[in-house]
Uroporphyrinogen decarboxylase (Pasteurella bettyae CCUG 2042), 354 residues
Amino acid sequence: MTILKNDRYLKALLREPVDMTPVWMMRQAGRYLPEYKATRAEAGDFMSLCRNADLACEVTLQPLRRYDLDAAILFSDILTIPDAMGLGLSFGPGEGPKFTHSVETKSAVENLPIPDPEQELQYVMNAVRTIRRELKGEVPLIGFSGSPWTLSTYMVEGGSSKAFTKIKKMMYREPQLLHQLLDKVADSVILYLNAQIKAGAQAVMIFDTWGGALAHREYLDFSLQYMHKIVDGLIRENDGRKVPVTLFTKGGGLWLEAMANTGCDAVGLDWTVNLAQAKQLIGHKVALQGNMDPSVLYASPEYIQQEVKSILADFGHGTGHVFNLGHGIHQDVPVENPRVFVDAIHNFSKPYHK
Ligand code: 1CP
């Protein structure tokens, strides 16, 4: 077992005692950091940055040099899987992701290959191996994937969407076709995450960013069912240590019990959820990650500290909480503010762990 100097993130996910509440930030590597923008410019474009293991490692480590974070997250994107399936991913300047080919017909679904993670996605595994080496056991490395539903929204719509018109037409007109697609994507995600774990990821997270666009029954059927399948298919122990799995559905506050019942180790919460209520509901089964509104990082240092104190008080005593934002950090937050946030969590949480 590789020794970790700081393992409080892994311990909190497994609800083992810690000295203070661990913290990382969703999208902690990104455009709010001037050094990220410089490295991205050096790479040329976003996908070139992802494909270059040394530069992907560099941007993964950048936020850790500035802030006292308890985990690193692989620098990559959820859309690497559809890209590896041959859909042709591109990111125009200042635009969202776009695919050359969308998946709208039965033949398109049937012809989709399941990518071999050590072939078409080997650049991701190389980034994982490089980052693990360069982290030198300081903090654990988180691997990740999108959920089958969230990935499929991009694949069917051909890019970002607000109304999800095409995929919802497919869902209500040809549900079996959508199930076929989701199942294929779920199989791809299982292979991809297990390869990340074998390459060195010490925990994994599944981002279901668009699950909140679904109606209740459809969430269970078209999103959660496939995340459950992934949880069942994952390697849960590696290098002598448990590999915790976190599920995050943005807008999933009404489905916390169902999420906790998948057998995952932790549930990520957006900022609409009250942490005390969530703890009461599912805190005996899983750890909780979250959940400050990312926009609070626009506020004054005093306000940020107050908000951190309130969220810590909501969770109360004991382990099982990983502090985070309720969604990704915004591009235009002042770079000093994440330090106020991270330090406040560490300082103010100590009494809750005595
Ligand atoms: O211009 C740039 O530099 C690209 C911006 C960017 C970044 C920094 C994109 C394009 N992806 C990423 C990295 C990324 N994406 C990470 C690793 C960085 C880190 O966390 O430190 C992760 C975990 C993701 C995950 C991701 N990509 C999600 C799920 C998490 C979430 O925020 O909800 C989603 C939905 C995507 C798709 C995507 N990739 C990029 C953009 C701008 C988007 C969103 C598009 C949309 O709104 O539909």
Residues 7-352 form a domain with the TIM Barrel fold (CATH 3.20.20.210).
